[in-house]
Specification:
Radius of gyration: 15 Å
Helix content: 10-25%
Distance between the termini: 38 Å
Number of helices: 3
Largest sheet: 2 strands, parallel
Strand order of the largest sheet: 1-6
Structural class: alpha+beta
């Protein structure tokens, strides 16, 4: 809508009675046809926005995931994904570039949350 190029993580809605981490695994399976394992929670974000003149409000559970054994793509070329019958291209962004702000990533604050997780897990450089 703004004419900007941006990126967001794969995912989708949590189904009634479903745990957030289980939804991530299910969504990757549906969108990429691959199995992932949840490694760590990254954060919970309350996102308020306007889309096509209408206010929106969502709660986002962010997780760090890893492809299950034998499920990782052979390379980091873009993958064709599917969201409810609507194909789209999933692209991998280099972590260092995301952290440096080279890419517009939604929801707001993703680079900061990733940096915080890295610093907590591996120690500040």
């Amino acid at each position: 809508m703004k004419g900007e190029t941006f990126y967001r993580a794969l995912g989708g809605e949590i189904e009634f009675g479903e745990a957030a981490a289980a939804a991530v695994v299910r969504e990757f399976g549906e969108e990429l046809g691959r199995t992932v394992e949840v490694r760590a929670p990254l954060g919970v974000v309350e996102n308020r926005f306007t889309l096509r003149g209408e206010p929106g409000h969502e709660v986002i559970f962010e997780f760090l995931v890893e492809f299950a054994a034998g499920e990782a793509p052979e390379n980091f070329e873009p993958l064709t994904a599917d969201e409810g019958g609507h194909p789209f291209t999933a692209r991998w962004l280099p972590l260092a570039e995301v952290l440096a702000g080279a890419w517009r990533v939604y929801p707001e604050g993703v680079p900061e949350r990733l940096a915080g997780w890295l610093n907590t897990t591996f120690g500040a450089p």
